[in-house]
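FAQ: What does the model actually see?

It sees only this:
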Amino acid sequence: MNRFFPLNSLDEDSTVPKYRQIIDSILQDVETGVLQQGQRIPSINEMSMEYMLARDTVEKAYKELRSRGIIKSVRGKGYYVCSTQTDTSLKILMIFNKISAYKKSVYNGFKQAMGPEVTIDLRIHHHNADLLHSFIEGNLGNYGYFVVMPFFYDDMPKALEILRKIPPHQLLLLDKDIEGLKPGYASVFQDFASDLYDALASGQDLLSRYRKLVMVFPENIPYPPELVEGFQDFCRDKGFDHEVITEFEEGMPLAKGEVYCVIEESDLANVIIQSRTQHLELGRDVGIIAFNDTPLKKILVNGITVISTDHERMGKIAAELILDKSQHKIQNPYTLIRRHSL
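And it is asked to produce this:
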């Protein structure tokens, strides 16, 4: 193996962790010119075998160096020095549309994958383009990346104008992709209409036991309208009687043989309470499909069937794109998780 830098100086007796010694050694070689931009360094396996280090130790060191923008991985080729600016640490501004249990899973997955040396600031825009403007204006030189959930139902033209100010290589869209931006940005997204269609189709064997599907799609709470499109397309194509309502109010009667697809937890609670009031058995007399899995839904009434993406995975993929300086667009689809309520 070619030796790109001397690691024989690793001190077995030092209180400094070995992964930190690797980082410091690489940074020193970059600073002194031993390692040049574009130069290949040993792979994780090469490093661990050559110096008899645990693979996890080397991986931890490389992960931090990637997060700081010093090295990058090239699929099928290995690791390369991509920057000689060793005095800068990566700062990321994440801008979510709201806070919820599943958004928290996205954040936790992202933070864990980025590593402890990265500074991550979180802001909430509440679907308001003016708030987005206040977060981005004046901060363009303060962050290496902007990770944005672009849910702006009334202010999308204004939001696009603001997002275009971010250099594309510093922008990552999360949870949704949009048209109208300059090429060169990255995204981890859901295609809500087609993803919902496919998720429902994967459970058609269960749905066929019911005579009607009812979607409860809130009128005054912002959710992707493409969900209604995907629901209606599936029902029409598969021959299901169906209906879209805006709320399942407390005390509203349930009809035997119907499946209720609910987004808001208040509607979910009302359906469950009403099923008990009418002595209807979930999964037999009526069905429930909820959106966005949470720990509570796993145990509620012996398990609520959900249509959900893997939110933690979404966050981790976004982190990997940043660490690899990639501008790829990756779909993170819905899946139907079968439980007792259907």
